[in-house]
Design a protein that fits this description.
The structure is a homodimer. Chain A is α/β, with parallel strands linked by helices. Chain A has 10 helices and 22 strands.
Amino acid sequence: MKPLGPIPTGFTAIEGELAIAGRKASDLVAQAGGTPLFVYARELLSQRVADLRAAMPERLAIHYAVKANPYQPLLQHMAGLVDGFDIASGGELAMVQAAGIDPARVSFAGPGKRDAELQAAITAGVTLNLESEGEAARALDIASRLGVTPRLAIRVNPDFDLKGSGMKMGGGAKPFGIDAARVPALARQLIAAGAQWRGFHIFAGSQALSADAIIETQGHTLALAARLAEQSGAALPKCNLGGGFGIPYFPGDEPVNIAAIGAALADRFAQLPAVLEQTAFCVELGRYLVGESGVYLTRIVDRKESHGEIYLITDGGLHHQLAASGNFGTVVRRNYPSAIATRYDAVAEEEASIVGCLCTPLDRLADKGGFPRADVGDLVAIFCAGAYGASASPAMFLGQGPAHEILI
Amino acid sequence: MKPLGPIPTGFTAIEGELAIAGRKASDLVAQAGGTPLFVYARELLSQRVADLRAAMPERLAIHYAVKANPYQPLLQHMAGLVDGFDIASGGELAMVQAAGIDPARVSFAGPGKRDAELQAAITAGVTLNLESEGEAARALDIASRLGVTPRLAIRVNPDFDLKGSGMKMGGGAKPFGIDAARVPALARQLIAAGAQWRGFHIFAGSQALSADAIIETQGHTLALAARLAEQSGAALPKCNLGGGFGIPYFPGDEPVNIAAIGAALADRFAQLPAVLEQTAFCVELGRYLVGESGVYLTRIVDRKESHGEIYLITDGGLHHQLAASGNFGTVVRRNYPSAIATRYDAVAEEEASIVGCLCTPLDRLADKGGFPRADVGDLVAIFCAGAYGASASPAMFLGQGPAHEILI
């Protein structure tokens, strides 16, 4: 039997069934109109942001990275919780605008911004995190043509990475940002060109569970920001410290210790160098804010045995949960937290694999896990489905189409 | 410098630029309305099917597996070329119906067929490749309720796999099909229940380049079909021999020797046992028929250097070409065949990585390949984009949306 990842806190059982924000899984499926279904819980989102705020120094603003989950009702809920939003495309700009979010709270990072996206962002008053000198030149040209003062920041490719992170975004050659050594010259040039100077975006990695690693990286980030600001010859108005806070997906994973990170950051904020004294700091988090608030519910349509192994075949699959199937950015497949939602408080009594309905061996949601005996009609829950689920999966694969989504 | 995969035959240069079916890449982009763009060439599709027919015994029918590429105009073109279609969902059933394809030419395999999908397929007269005894019971119930004689075949989980295949679909415990040992009893039951008996579907693996391995597997498949037909006590009307024919994607890959496969199959067809003498045989191919006919074109929006490495940043990426980025069913990332389309006949003069516009290190289309010097505005071509491209990628990731597609 292979272990399953740890189920996040905040879920209970009602009449033997998984309950999300006090509502039974089967009731939520009925309300949404069927399976497969992503359920996102407002109370878990709100609690997560509240806990984070309590742990972090007041001076630290909290931004939401829209790419983690752009579901419109969720975005609207987040608008009341966080201080800013980070977008990665013109498509995401349209989404935050549709959610009524003030573009002055929005910044835009991404290595391949098209002219049309730069124009839309500059027109709206979004801060651009510039990824290259070439992009800076295009942005200044477009702003000048529009007769608008652009809000410009520089995304720095730091000389260090975030140790133990699932995705390294710094340390050596990278397509993201501008190598640190070239940043001061560009900053001076942007300021001289009359842009509204918005400072630095320094993102070293994501999905780390070690507070020590995050604390160390934040230390490097503050030191780099101070050095680059000095060399730029201007006080730093803003500094995005990046993200990096991970969530536990796999057996043995432990939640990141945010109290330790907050305490270390408070210490550092208390002894900032002069060039950073007036700087507004933020972190940019996606997965950490929304990942554990979501559950993917899918129904068992067949139960079969093959050479002594049991397969629970569902109406969902990797077309909605690519990462849970182990096919997105992972080398070794491990099981996400999962359960039989309609037998949530029953004990495990057999080894079974939960697979999707796609005709490919890649489509496996849980491999040889221990579950209560489940049958056709039962609901399966895959947890940690609030981030990089629906929008990060090939919904149209094998003619399937998107899942239902609800925010409760 | 890392090697690039082999560019398929059939492409030329016109005025220094990649030409697809005699049309310059830049003209195709203009016609389609922009990049990113998937181009599929009718003449390459037709040639591929003609070459395959010439190599295979006349008795072998050729089926197209819609999952490889369900683009509607391509499906319509394939309708005039192949003998049958294999679908994997109710969504794909709707697609073949929209293309005006006779449902009598269609069979439906897939481990998680919902009742509504079974009903639609039975009503339309599609052959169901049954994946379990439970699914068989549901299909018989639904047909009886509808007052329709269902066309039923059994998908067999073979006791062998296809050696060297990219995807193993047989050999040991699998979610697909019914273990061979249980097949005869179910076949007798279906025939006794009055279903129109359509025989066996035996799919052992896909994406193999070794003719020897395919020949060996086809031998096992015919032997298994004969044995199961004998044990079922009925002549076998039809036998789907599966697929398995791969295409070269990576450095060192060689095209599969279809002449050898055809000759071996002709030998075997000449000495079939009595129980298979009247059997209609087919192969079910997706990637092999359409993969090399397609090219993904994307435009360079930035050229940058980081720590001495050159990045060509495009307006496309893994949201359209997940497999080419190395993030779908592969353990070790290798480069697909790729080129600077607008400098197609120029010599390689620098090492560069071609990346997508997504803000993630996973989004890499070509890693440290040798290319002519390219700049903003140049078009990049990723080959072997005709199968498992557009529909097998997370188009909505980071708010990007789908690529353009054209059939020329």
